[in-house]
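Table S5 (text form). Sequence records supplied for joint modeling of the two-component complex.
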Amino acid sequence: MTAELTETEQAVRDRHQLRTLAVAITTVSAVLCAVFVAILYAVSLNRLWFLHFPLGFYLLAQGLLIFTVVVGFWYVRVQERIDHTRSVNEEIA
Amino acid sequence: MIAPSRQRTPNPHLGAYYSIVASAFVSLVILLAMAEQLGWSDGTVARSLILLPLAAYLGIAVAARTLDIEDFFASGRRVPQVYNALVLAAIAVGGTGFFAYTGAVLFLGFDALAIGLGWTCGFLLAAVLFVPYLRRAGAYTLPAFIGQRFRSREARIAASVLQVAPTALLLAAEIKIAAVVTSIFLPLPFWLAVLLVTFFVAAVGILGGMRSLTWSGSAQFIVGAVGLAVTLIVVSVMLTNLPAPQLTYGEMFGSLQRAETAAGMAPVAPDAITSLPQAAPAQVVKPFLQPFGAISETGFFALFLCFALGTAALPSLLMRSGVTRSVADQRRSTGWALLLVALFVITAPAIAAFAKLIMFRDMALIPTQGMPSWLSTLSEWHLIQPSDINGDGTIGSGELLVARNGVALALPMLAELPYILTALMATAGLSIALTAAGSHLFTLGASLADDIYGVLDRRPVELPRLMAAWAAIGLCALIAMVFLLIAEVDALRNAVTAFAFAAATFFPALLLAIWWPRCTAWGALASMGTGFLILFLAVTLGGVVGVAETAPGIAAASLIAALLALGAGVGASLYGPSPATFDTAYYEEMRKPEGEAIFDLAQSRPAPARATEE
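The corresponding structure-token record, covering 707 residues in total, follows.
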């Protein structure tokens, strides 16, 4: 399916895949950790109030969703930059 | 540089078309609101507001009809990112989210938030882990991707068979919800409503496949969003003087807690009530803000993860991974869908909180004689049933039986708003349910036709392939209709089971196929088979030993099944034959961020070369 890759092309590909993996792990683990912590401390956080909401409830009903959307768009931007870098490097190679 | 096989330029007038659709719908609502004030009956208003948009969706589907394979299965791969996001969000939320999830939040309050959070995070997982690579592969269906990734007809057929469980469960749930709404508002006998809804979704799927679903689905999403937003903003202004329900319902918590106490709701002990409310009218017993009352912390996390993994690997959603112009567009499209789903999930608790507040604050101690007409109507529709349990001649707030799926529909009536807003909420929910049902039906039919019939009959002739898809869609619709007429379907339980099956069967297999070059066809088969089998046993036989009886139980079983499936996939790949050179080359090609879809490149090669390769 693909022709043999030169050493430079292989390096470009490996670097792209490594950076993609790092961004994916960062994105997914950030959101999952945030959700896990929010669930774990929801009862304690409910003693604090934020915008008329108990904080634990607010985080699970709105805060984490907003965080997920922000992380999602951050991921899209970073991944596009990584992909663009690979295209440029492949052209140079 | 390989030239694209065709120009993938989206219609430049799409923005104008959908602005016209939105304006026409808003105008229709305003006209009907005026007609209601001029004396039109409630029935006429509701029929007009439901049937005219339905006719418009069907008209759009007819206009988008196609006999082209790429248009039928992938909408020509030229759908702009935002339009694809509209349909993705509608499929994920569906009528189940619109009606059953909002009802579950009313019954369980805090504890039900796990479901919405799961949906939202699921889109993030899909955007990061699967969608860009599926777009690069360009397969028309999820089983087709698995078959092409490993060059295995067996894996493709197995995936097609295994995807029936999650997709059919969701299809039944969506048609049921849509039929219930239709039967209330048109009004029709339930069997006729099921027939009408099934005919509609089958017609849309058969006429233009993915293309019709995309363009009628976008219009349906607009109607759904307008209907939900207008109704909820009006209620929010009435109760809080501000048109931002997501921000203002927190102000109502003081009043809500007082109303709950007056209604006799006290914090419930874990396992004291069922973890998810049933569809039949029942008493609301749990305070809205009590954390982990019906569902424990572990159960909450399991339910969240089950919905997140299930959403990320849901075949109906992933089937739309090939409809945009490029990998980057598809990724951005999933990002927009994530935003839209998050907006709905942030809004749903506001519907539940407002409905619960009005229900238990303003309806306390209504005399059984001379009940208000709107309460009689809600009772006739079996949405809220007042029953004088203690026989004191009044309906106390603790004597209201609430139907889970009717909370969103009941809200405008509870707030004593004009009937047009009840009809608006109904048409909004119905539109979203129809989009989801159409997509699930198309996913089932297209996969049976293309991944089973198409694999067995390898003639490269377009029309028989399309005819097979039409026949499969028709057959699936017929089976769904008969099933709904003879079986009792609980939409929310169906949804939990469906997402659990998607999480256990497809998430580990896709994770290995996309992120692990060493994965082989045997690994994928072992992973899908293990995940499905363990969850199937837990769901069917688990009741005997007390496993997977409740929603958190099913969710926990799906997570265990997913873990074991991952292990089985890794084990079978490591100890089975090594991946062929072709598999490794396909993997590397799939990971490239740019270029024409692999499937399209293969199709553009001369037939003899393809045959040799296959």
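Note: The helical segments of chain A are 7-40, 42-45, 55-92.
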